[in-house]
Amino acid sequence: MQDISDITRTDLSGLDWQEWLGQAEEAVGDAGYTQPLGSDHAALFCERKPVLLVSFETFDRLDTLSDKGQLFGWTMMQALGWSHLCLLSRRDTWFRDALVYGYFDRLVDDGFFDEFEQVIFYGAGACGYAAAAFSVAAPGAKVLMLRPQATLDPRVAEWDDRYLAMRRTSFTDRYGYAPDMLDAAANAVLLYDPEIELDAMHSALFNRANVLRFRTRHLGYSIEETLARLGVLPRILAQLSADKLSCHSLAQLWRARRNDQGYLFPLLRRLVTEQRDGLIVPFCTNVLGRRRGGPRYRNALNAAEARLAEQRG
User: Which of 81, 145, 283, 308 lies 20 to 30 Å from 236, alpha-carbon distance?
Assistant: First the structure.
């Protein structure tokens, strides 16, 4: 069987769709397979331990999460030795394709998911929608979704005007309305930024007894990238697998942002732009007190304190 390190050392960056699929298949070797599903989708499987991660990923975002252009699921395969099935799309399709439906039908008919002790579905955005929608193929699975859409059916979500090109795509046939598809899941976790109003509205449609919704304020559309950069995303999946994920544990993991300049400086910039001097002072004091800041935080603190002093007369 192909060694995991041989797979994860493979550099797949900068390749086009066909080249990427070919080299990924070569990297996986006899440990799994790569199967094209039409021109816009492919399935990639690598078998390891009896925990299966089913990730939905988009080809044009692979370089965002990996400097080698690899699948995010390979991170979990390397870290925990999980088996991995990836449904990969060339672009954001929400995986609304009869060939994808047929592929999952065959997996169900073959009892594929029954071969694993645990199945976890994962995705972000359009892929988060797919993770929820296709989880129905493996009753009892666990699901992690980052800012997913519930549907793009205009009869339900006409208020979401971000994806107008998808309005003619059917979200009412098989594997359609994502919140309903979660009814068979053991539990699901949904992360979203409440300040992105349309994401928050989709999140509200997932308000089910088996869905834990957690707010990641100030991350906007970059929840996946930020959590991956912080090293938090694999830990969330690991805790989900171990039945240890809760609001409390998520809040503890979320504290990692306090040491991340990629999170702190945009937040400082926003506070300065909005002239929130009453918040700039404690924010910069906290950052500087933990020796995580630099001159820009000191300068912002001094300027805010000067303006507040002037206002007090």
Answer: 283
- Give 267: exposed, middle or buried? Use CB within 10 Å, 0-12, 13-18, 19+: middle
CA distances (Å), origin 146, targets 49, 131, 179, 221:
25, 10, 14, 10
pLDDT tens-digit map of 172-215: 999 999 999 999 999 999 999 999 999 999 999 999 999 999 99
Cβ-count burial 139-176 (b if 16+ within 10 Å, e if not): eebbbbbbbbbbbbbeeebeebeeeeebeeeebeebbe
pLDDT tens digits for range 231-286: 999 999 999 999 999 999 999 999 999 889 889 999 999 999 999 999 999 999 99
Among the listed residues 227, 277, 284, 281, the one whose alpha carbon sits nearest the alpha carbon of residue 254: 227
Vertex 102: Cα angle to 98 and 105 (nearest 5) = 140
Name the pTM for this structure: 0.93
Q: Quick one: tokens of 38?
A: 């039409």
